[in-house]
Structure to design on (227 residues):
């Protein structure tokens, strides 16, 4: 059974930093591209970033480019999102997700990031 | 930036057919994916590569594509199908540089 478990979401002040983690199990982690997708309270889904199976390619939404960094450790079956220079508009539930072609076939339950003074 | 456009809401009676559209200029060249999200839950993939149905998804869910519009069809809608539905695709560059979700459609079962 595929499982994706996010952690690291907390309340942080504007301008602060945070690192999210996602522990993956139930599939061969290093075979798959992985995504981060977020959802602000009461809003729709917003793609944030993705990383290729080997970490060699990364892509970002314009809204986070230059502030967020995606990475992975295949030896630990883990995905990460380093978030710097956080803004109030980054407040959201952050989902870790496993790629299926250009889409996503499995999602975690999310970790909540709140940016507030 | 690339956008996918969905109607904000669709309403149908139980047993009827619901059709949710998603429009985008790159859809003739890129596959679309559809997700169902119920309140307080993570999204669930219901259609991939325009019209493929993952295992475990009921046969009443189907997808189709025509030009710049893709459509999610739910035949014989049931009360449990009430949810938000999102389409997702990428722009026509052929890379992941612009993965995008539609704004979502709230399906109400009357």
């Amino acid at each position: 059974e595929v499982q994706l478990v996010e952690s690291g979401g907390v309340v942080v002040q504007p301008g602060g930093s945070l690192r999210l983690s996602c522990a993956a199990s139930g599939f061969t982690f290093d075979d798959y591209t992985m995504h981060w997708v977020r959802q602000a309270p009461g809003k729709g889904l917003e793609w944030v970033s993705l990383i290729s199976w080997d970490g060699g390619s990364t892509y970002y939404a314009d809204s986070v480019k230059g502030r967020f960094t995606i990475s992975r450790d295949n030896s630990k079956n883990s995905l990460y999102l380093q978030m710097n220079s956080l803004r109030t508009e980054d407040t959201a539930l952050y989902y870790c997700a496993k790629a299926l072609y250009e889409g996503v076939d499995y999602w975690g339950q999310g970790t909540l990031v709140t940016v507030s003074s | 930036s690339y956008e996918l456009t969905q109607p904000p809401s669709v309403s149908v009676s139980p047993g009827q057919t619901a059709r949710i559209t998603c429009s985008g200029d790159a859809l003739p060249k890129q596959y679309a994916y559809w997700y169902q999200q119920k309140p307080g839950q993570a999204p669930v993939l219901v259609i991939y590569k325009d019209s493929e149905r993952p295992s475990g998804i009921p046969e009443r869910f189907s997808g189709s594509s025509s030009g710049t519009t893709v459509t999610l069809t739910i035949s014989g809608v049931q009360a449990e199908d009430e949810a938000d539905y999102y389409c997702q695709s990428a722009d026509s560059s052929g890379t992941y540089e612009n993965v995008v979700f539609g704004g979502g459609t709230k399906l109400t079962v009357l």
